[in-house]
Design goal:
SH3 type barrels, 7-stranded antiparallel beta sheet, mainly beta, 103 residues
């Protein structure tokens, strides 16, 4: 498991509007039990593209990083990897900076 890996959302309740989750935690700090993720939601769930909510392409799907919904999840729940969004690193880091630092 690496930073910016994308996995199918293991929650049946939220998977309808957030089909995937994005690993945000650095690969250097990933623990054996949990990892920090944010949901990738359908575009109609959040406002237009902004620094806080970047639109990202995962395969053929356009999704939005719901940066304000960070959570820790058990690593064992993340079974179905769907790719990696390292190519969107700058947009993801900018969203986290906006969330935590306000710029």
């Amino acid at each position: 498991m690496r930073q910016f890996d994308v996995f199918r959302n293991p929650s049946k309740n939220s998977a309808k509007h957030a089909p995937l989750v994005l690993v945000l935690q650095s690969s250097l700090t990933i623990t054996e039990t949990t990892v920090i993720v944010a949901p990738l939601v359908l575009p109609d769930r959040l406002p237009a593209t902004s620094k806080l909510f970047p639109h990202l392409k995962v395969g053929a799907r356009h999704l939005v990083l719901s940066t304000n919904e960070l959570s820790a999840i058990g690593r064992h729940h993340l079974r179905h990897r769907s790719g990696n969004l390292e190519r969107h690193r700058d947009d993801i880091i900018a969203a986290l900076d906006m969330l935590f630092l306000g710029f």
